[in-house]
Amino acid sequence: SRTLRLAVIPGDGIGQEVVAEGLKVLSSALPADVKVETVEYDLGARRYHATGETLPDSVLDELKGADAILLGAIGDPSVPSGVLERGLLLKLRFAFDHHVNLRPGKLFPGVKSPLAGDPQIDFVVVREGTEGPYVGNGGSLRTGTEQEVATEVSLNTAFGIERVVRDAFARAQARPRKKLTLVHKNNVLVHAGHLWKRIFDQVAAEFPEVTTDYLHVDAATIFFVTQPERFDVIVTDNLFGDILTDLAAAVTGGIGLAASGNINPSGAFPSMFEPVHGSAPDIAGQGKADPTATVLSVAMMLSHLGYTEQAAAIESAVTADLAERGSLTAPRTTSEIGDALAARVAG
Ligand code: IPM
Ligand code: MN
């Protein structure tokens, strides 16, 4: 028998509610001989107000021993913008070197896209997770004066680009369509953009079966809406990837369905799985949040940990549930959706 040591960070707002359903579906998916040992960490707005801490070193140390981390959502209007995002969520991604931020954009059968026609959308965004403008390489000068200056310098290293580009090529190679699109803005961001393009072209030579494409990020947003079928795997930097994956969620049935994995492919530190959505304080505590994004993130976690069959079972359950949602007459609560998914997984 095996034990899965899972660190759980419900976080703020609807985080608590959706994570509970994710865990429910997880236990119904795992074989009887796999035990889940969950340790829940109280991090987020409540702890910040109580102690001033966002992510103490002692907690960070403990988290290192987990097989994976499941996170709900971070952020609360009572905390100044950026404190929890930088001090907790991004700190985890950076400390655990989550350089592959995997975000599928898939339109499930029966799910209504706001896009015209009946688009076939099935791509995955490989968002770089540890560099770009997210590193905090900036500052303010002459704060509060009319001459105030603020910088936010994007950090791009050959090492960081190459490893994520290589990962994206490998993913593209493993998919039926074998297509990889690099998204950047190298007509304006000539320093970082050309470095990305040069490394992309170099690595491409090692993957002759993969068809490659390049798009400026502004053009990519057009194609996300007008021709989403053209995408298979997309690789891009941290900020472009953040923006594009919200758009991806919007065109594939909304943020309630969008899953993500912050992956450390080497396994040196635990990978972390979380819905793309935020804490949604406006609907928190009302049982209105859709836990599907978290449930799909749990499936990504299982697949990452090698439980391929169990991950597929969760995906099938979600696929079947989504196909029937259109015919439901009344909205379901968060836990009703979780129950339905868990029941389907249990078969
Ligand atoms: C996301 C979020 C985060 C990000 C924020 C909350 C730091 O928007 O996971 O997409 O920008 O990466
Ligand atoms: Mn985002």
TrEMBL record:
Residues of the Isopropylmalate dehydrogenase-like domain: 5-341
Sites marked Important for catalysis: Y134, K185
Pathway(s) annotated for this protein in UniProt: Amino-acid biosynthesis; L-leucine biosynthesis; L-leucine from 3-methyl-2-oxobutanoate: step 3/4
MF term (GO), any: NAD binding
EC main group: oxidoreductase
Alphabetical UniProt keywords: Amino-acid biosynthesis, Branched-chain amino acid biosynthesis, Cytoplasm, Leucine biosynthesis, Magnesium, Manganese, Metal-binding, NAD, Oxidoreductase
Catalytic activity, as annotated: (2R,3S)-3-isopropylmalate + NAD(+) = 4-methyl-2-oxopentanoate + CO2 + NADH
Keyword Repeat: no
Chain positions recorded as Mg(2+) binding sites: D218, D242, D246
SMART domains (alphabetical): Iso_dh
Record localization: Cytoplasm
CC cofactor note: Binds 1 Mg(2+) or Mn(2+) ion per subunit.
Annotated positions binding substrate: R93, R103, R127, D218
Coiled coil (UniProt feature): none
EC number assigned by the record: 1.1.1.85
Gene3D superfamilies, per database record: Isopropylmalate Dehydrogenase
Chain positions recorded as NAD(+) binding sites: G278, S279, A280, P281, D282, I283, A284, G285, Q286, G287, K288, A289, D290
Presence of keyword Signal: no
GO annotations of cellular component type: cytoplasm
Co-factor(s): Mn(2+); Mg(2+)
Swiss-Prot/TrEMBL GO biological process terms: L-leucine biosynthetic process
Family membership noted in the UniProt record: Belongs to the isocitrate and isopropylmalate dehydrogenases family. LeuB type 2 subfamily.
NCBIfam families in the cross-refs: PRK03437.1
Function: Catalyzes the oxidation of 3-carboxy-2-hydroxy-4-methylpentanoate (3-isopropylmalate) to 3-carboxy-4-methyl-2-oxopentanoate. The product decarboxylates to 4-methyl-2 oxopentanoate.
UniProt subunit comment: Homodimer.
Name of protein: 3-isopropylmalate dehydrogenase
Organism field: Streptacidiphilus fuscans
Classification of source organism: Bacteria, Bacillati, Actinomycetota, Actinomycetes, Kitasatosporales
Gene that encodes the chain: leuB
